[in-house]
Specification:
There is one protein chain. The protein is α/β, with parallel strands linked by helices and about 400 residues long. The protein has two domains: about 230 residues, Rossmann fold; about 180 residues, 3-Layer(aba) Sandwich (Rossmann fold). About 40% of the residues lie in helices and about 15% in strands. It contains 14 helices and 13 strands. Strands 3-2-1-4-5-6-7 form a seven-stranded parallel β-sheet, with helices on both faces. Strands 10-9-8-11-12-13 form a six-stranded parallel β-sheet, with helices on both faces. Strand 1, helix 1 and strand 2 form a beta-alpha-beta unit. Helix 1 packs across helix 14.
Length: about 400
């Protein structure tokens, strides 16, 4: 198949699991003989350099997200027009059999109207909240369709009466997001499908394709001694809630009397990071709690150095990769059933659960782990087997490939 992938960010200029999922899928589809061209934004992450070939075009412009400015409507018109032209040029040059749409956060949603009105089948991969929570907030389409201010209503009415809206719509679609059809779509979890459907979008028919990890690339934990070294991994941000992980750990350490340590691996907003650092200082925990950083590649070898992994996300996580990674490395996992991750957790069998946002509940889960006679070995083996059977990149790509083939009539 000739596939055009459309996404807002693409590694190395990514920020999280959605981009990693996209990267793995693109690589695996190419390895299976498919021609995959990626159209993404020109957004850059400092300190990273892309070494793309002709298969990746970084030309689209981001609006509002990731530090890019929010524009007034007359300037936004130029951005939308530029993105439309880039999409049409790419469709003409690549001539794909199917367009595979990924994360559209910060990217012109008018592009979706253009795609759905075209002759090429469109398949959506939804591993974030960009439909459920932010699609209706697209500035360009909401300006033309939502009530807005009296001034906006007057300008919109004038544009309609003088025929200007018709002229603009021939260049840039202005229809409501509510007219999008999403005929071929899949989600990373049942939670995300239900959340999006609950917002009134026609996605009840969607399949679920869970995220996968490259299990074979993770160094394996082999020693299961009494658990003292804990690890947390993720963005240092309010939604990932490392503060609950820190406070729960501190309570467990105090209550148990064990010489537990916690390493927090991640980067994030300076102000929030300062809060974590202040809490560590307030608790006089600098000797046994440390903030560290490592690349995704490095983390594959690092997990196995620890005795347990803490997952504390608290925002309606679509389906996180880091619990799968820790399980792939053989670590006992302590996790809250946040969002789609409730579909992963089987308390006491493959992980120990605690209540999201509750340090006391996490402290209780840590105490349960400390009391396990096998130090979590059996639980970790169960988790590893589950990941190998259901949550690998190969399993994920098998399902995605089949959906893409169905869209073009090959299956």
């Amino acid at each position: 198949m000739k596939i055009l992938v459309l996404t807002n960010l693409f590694p190395p200029h990514g920020i999280g699991g959605y981009e990693e999922r996209c990267l793995h899928t693109v690589a695996d589809l190419r390895a299976r003989g498919h021609q995959v061209h990626v159209l993404t934004s020109d957004h850059q992450v400092d300190g990273r350099e892309a070494t793309d070939g002709q298969e990746v075009s970084r030309r689209l412009q981001i609006h509002g997200f990731y530090g890019h400015p929010w524009l007034p409507i007359h300037q936004l018109y130029r951005l939308e027009l530029a993105n439309q032209q880039i999409l049409r040029e790419t469709l003409e040059s690549v001539r794909p059999q199917v367009v595979h749409v990924w994360n559209m956060g910060g990217i012109s949603k008018s592009l979706l109207h253009t795609l759905e009105a075209g002759d090429v089948p469109v398949v959506y991969d939804i591993s974030d909240h960009w439909i459920a929570r932010s699609l209706k907030a697209d500035v360009w389409l909401s300006w033309w369709n939502d009530p807005g201010s009296p001034g906006r209503a007057l300008l919109r009415g004038m544009a309609r009466l003088c025929g200007l809206r018709r002229v603009i719509t021939r260049q840039i679609p202005t229809a409501s997001v509510r007219t999008l059809q999403f005929k071929k779509i899949y989600f990373c979890s049942k939670f995300m499908r239900e959340l999006s459907q609950g917002q009134g979008y026609p996605v009840g028919h969607a399949e679920v394709v869970y995220c996968g990890v490259e299990v074979e690339r993770f160094r394996q934990k082999t020693e299961y001694s009494p658990p003292t070294r804990f690890i947390w991994v993720g963005r240092l941000a309010e939604d990932k809630d490392p503060m609950t992980a820190l406070k729960g750990f501190l309570r467990a350490r105090s209550a148990s009397g064990w010489a537990l340590t916690l390493d927090i691996f991640g980067r994030g907003d300076a102000a929030y990071t300062a809060k974590i650092e202040a809490e560590i200082e307030r608790a006089a925990a600098g000797d046994f709690v440390c903030i560290r950083a490592a690349s995704h590649e490095e983390m594959r070898a690092i997990y196995a150095d620890y005795d347990a992994y803490i997952f504390s996300s608290n925002w309606g996580e679509p389906f996180a990769l880091t619990p799968l990674e820790a399980m792939a490395a053989g670590l006992p996992v302590l996790m809250c059933p946040d969002g789609g991750d409730a579909e992963l957790l089987h308390d006491g069998f493959n992980a120990l659960g605690f209540v999201a946002g509750s340090p006391s509940s996490l402290a209780g889960a840590i105490q349960r782990l400390l009391e396990l006679k096998d130090h979590g070995k059996k639980m970790s083996q169960n988790a590893r087997c589950m990941v190998e059977a259901r949550f690998t990149v190969t399993v994920m790509t098998d399902k995605i490939e089949k959906i893409l083939q169905q869209a073009v009539g090959l299956s």
